[in-house]
Amino acid sequence: MTNSKKKSIVLHAVTPLIVAALVCGILMIAMIKPYDRAKVYLHIAFMDELKTDPDNISSGLIIRDNRIIEDYSGEFTYSGELIRPKYGEMYAIIKSSSLSLDVPVYWGSDIELYERGACQSTGSVLVGDKGNSVISAHEDTYFSELSGLKKGDTIEIRTNYGIFTFKVKQLISFKRDNNKYVVPTEDTRLTLYTCKKNVLGSSDERIGVICEPTEKKFYRTSGEGAAE
Prior knowledge:
Elements: H1 3-39, E1 67-68, E2 76-77, E3 90-96, E4 101-107, H2 111-114, E5 118-120, E6 132-136, E7 154-159, E8 162-175, E9 189-195, E10 205-219, E11 226-227
Parallel strand pairs: 4-5, 6-9
Antiparallel strand pairs: 1-11, 2-10, 3-4, 3-7, 5-6, 7-8, 8-10, 9-10
C-alpha cells in the first residue's frame, strides 16, 4: 500500500472525529448563556429537589445561627449597606402582628435549613434591595399560618443590617412548575410561599403572598442588628 493511500485512509477515519469534536464545542458554547440564565432559578424550587449550593456540596453544609436583636434602640438611616450572608446563615426574622408569625430566615435552600426555619432563594435579592425577595417554608411547620394572611396585613423583616416593613398586596396560588411569581422582578417586593395543605399527600400547588415595601430602616452602623 502506497503512502498516499495510507494517508487517505487515516484522513477518512479521523475526519468524522474532528467534525464531532467541533460540533460538541459549538453546542457547549451555545449553551453557556442559557445555562447562566437558568442558574438564577436553580434554588427557586421549594421542596422539589431541595438543592444545595454548589459550593457546599464537597465541603458540607455549615449552619450559622445568628441572633437578630429584636429590641434595637440605636439610630436608623434610610439608606445603608446590605450584608450578604453566607449559604446556611440565618440573617433575618419574619414577623407579623396579624398572625403568630415569628420565623428565622436562612440564606439558601437545604433540608436541614427547612427544619430550622424559612429559606430564602439565593437566586433572589436580599431583603431591602431592589427586586424580588423569595422566601419559603414548610406548610406544616414555620409557614403553617401563611394562608391566614390577608390583603393589607403587615409583614416585618428584621435583618442584621436593618428593619423592613411590607404590606400584603396580593394572595397567590400557582403550580409547582410555574415560576411566574418567583422570578426576578423590576419592582421591589417580598414573596412568601409554601405548599398548599393536602391530606392525601404532597401537593403540586403552592400558595403565598406578594408584599410591597412600606418602610425601610437601616442601622446606622452596618451589622449592628446581630448579636454574637
